[in-house]
Amino acid sequence: MVKLSSQGSRDALWYKNAIFYELYVRAFHDSNGDGHGDLPGVIQKLDYLQALGVDCIWLLPIYPSPLRDDGYDIADYYSVLPEYGTLDDFRRLVEEVHRRGMRIITDLVLNHTSDQHPWFQAARADRNSPYRDYYVWSDDNQKYKEARIIFLDTETSNWTWDAQAGQYYWHRFYSSQPDLNYDNPAVRQEMLNVMRFWLDIGVDGFRADAVPYLYEREGTNCENLPETHAYLKEIRAYLDQHYPDRVLLAEANQWPKDVRQYFGDGDEFHMGFHFPVMPRIYMALRRGDNRSLEWILKRTPPIPENCQWCVFLRNHDELTLEMVTEEERQWMWQEYAPDPRMRLNLGIRRRLAPLLDNDRRKIELANSLLFSLPGSPIIYYGDEIGMGDNIWLFDRNGVRTPMQWLPEEKGGFSSAPVDAFYAPMIQGEPYGPQRVNVASQQAQPGSLLDFTRRLISLRKANPILGWGDFTWLDAGCHAVAAYLRSDGTERLLILNNLSGELQPVHVLIPGLETATTYDIFNSTPGPGVANYRLELSLAPYAYRWLRLE
Ligand code: GLC
Ligand code: CA
Description:
Elements: H1 7-12, E1 20-23, H2 25-28, H3 39-44, H4 46-52, E2 56-59, H5 87-99, E3 103-109, H6 118-125, E4 137-138, E5 159-162, E6 167-170, H7 185-201, E7 205-209, H8 226-242, E8 247-250, H9 256-260, E9 271-273, H10 277-287, H11 291-298, E10 308-312, E11 319-320, H12 326-336, E12 343-344, E13 347-348, H13 352-355, H14 360-372, E14 376-380, H15 438-442, H16 448-461, H17 464-467, E15 469-473, E16 480-486, E17 491-497, E18 503-508, E19 515-519, E20 524-530, E21 533-538, E22 543-548
Parallel strand pairs: 1-2, 1-14, 2-3, 3-7, 7-8, 8-9, 9-10, 10-14
Antiparallel strand pairs: 4-6, 5-6, 11-13, 12-13, 15-16, 16-17, 17-22, 18-21, 19-20, 19-22, 20-21
Bound molecules: alpha-D-glucopyranose and calcium ion.
Residues 69, 72, 109, 173, 209-210, 251, 316-317 line the site of alpha-D-glucopyranose (GLC).
């Protein structure tokens, strides 16, 4: 396991304490007035991201694609979707990001291609093509029965009959996304080539899509297989050898003990999304009870020192309820998706602000958790200003609407006529651009955007939140999530009142008989610790970050 000693190694581990920002190019900013956001548009908004304090941008797929899964169905790994711009635009973006001291990672879709990809076209056309074996074929649809279906609302099987090929092909997602065959060494090599191409352009790493599903083996659920881990370790070794300081972030929607495997011995992924903690933040907030959070955090195994969790509240997909029990899922749906239209697959297609009743106290509290739990936080574009959603749009498009920059009908997103927008702007009260937009919030101290910026700078001023140990504490009541972040010399006590009621807090601080405290959020002295105890009361949904001195 890697041991950290010098500041030098800390710099190489930049991702351990970075602020990530998930950005959907189509939604961000349209530079040429065709109604679609594009790469030059992103460049025009980099100053905004820099001022916000973002360290690393993650771009959703930007490759040529028939867009049956919004770009996760890639037809060409070596180019840029024309609506988004050109490879040169992308090069310029990377340069401009780096010039501002930020980093950028892109999506690496390993598991599948689009059915429009030339490999698949060649494969289905000819049994003897070398590309036939790039995919997984079968004469019947009986194999791998234990593999679950992920896009439950659309797909009925992981096998689809291809008349041209005269065989069934395997796919874990849409039938328009045939799975690649990782038993084929040529496929394994292709993906290293893809990585090299983008790394040479200068990307700082990848968010690796859907990594649990690379291999299939009879008699298993075809997830997290040893063969999959072996290949991912190969990718990592390649990266370490040729491109040190770049990062691999795993999308493995799995239980912590299974995600833990993706860190290997510090020789697989640098980072992994912490999927199971996410719905439990919402559960805890709705119930006013910390037990679901405590439960999952206590089941989160330690990870190697050179690894880090990535924590999030929302992303471009439905708020997934795969990592909860059936009973919890039903409860979450009932509480957070009362309208059936809000539900999708095993999740909820809504954004942060609407989920939390557009209640500023709850949004801040959720962010207090996001920024203080173990891991590096990632913000989903638009959530920093409290954007709304549109549950009437197809699939997950309702959480991918245009970014709202200005208080006007077009939201400053594009100069195109609104009916040429790739998706309708959120409209009306309380989430339309007249009410929710960057410019107004920039001008208004105390706005949600202002709060987010302060939270980010506070997080950066306290690296212990990225590096420190985590200890769950008993706050004397279940309504408060209390924990300590410490690194031996410094200690930060975090208190979150999950409930809508005033809560008296009595927290026992292990090993600290007396201390003064300093409230780093409000820059004021906090209550003292006496006889290992700290007492205070927390207003509804209030949070305190106290440095123990
Ligand atoms: C990941 C992506 C999702 C996509 C799927 C298939 O889960 O987050 O948007 O649909 O992979 O590529
Ligand atoms: Ca455009």
